[in-house]
Amino acid sequence: VSECALYDALASGGIAGAALDVYQTEPLKQHPLFELDRFIAVPHIAGYTRDAVQNLGMICVKNIASVLIDKQKPEFVVNGL
């Protein structure tokens, strides 16, 4: 999302509200978006919940077993093989 375009859309009333947890440049320390009442800046922490960490561990174990035992490609590979 272009923060400048989002600002323009919020300021003009083109959209009613927005929330972001990821920015083009991080950390985004200052931006006119932060002055708008209809904008919410939230931390990017969904991956750090107890369930997310447990699920990540299970995915890792399944992928290791898949490669070593079943000779299969792992699931959810981000950077490729």
TrEMBL record:
KW NAD (keyword) present: yes
Q: What taxonomic classification does the UniProt entry list for its organism?
A: Bacteria, Bacillati, Bacillota, Bacilli, Bacillales
For this UniProt entry, the molecular function terms from Gene Ontology, in alphabetical order, are: glyoxylate reductase (NADPH) activity; hydroxypyruvate reductase [NAD(P)H] activity; NAD binding
Every copy of the D-isomer specific 2-hydroxyacid dehydrogenase NAD-binding domain together lies at 1-46
PANTHER family in UniProt: 2-HYDROXYACID DEHYDROGENASE YGL185C-RELATED, 2-HYDROXYACID DEHYDROGENASE-RELATED
The name under which this protein is listed is D-isomer specific 2-hydroxyacid dehydrogenase NAD binding domain-containing protein
UniProt keyword annotations, A-Z:
NAD, Oxidoreductase
- Superkingdom is Bacteria
Q: Which organism is it from?
A: Bacillus licheniformis
Record's keyword annotation contains Lipoprotein: no
Any one cellular-component term (Gene Ontology): cytosol
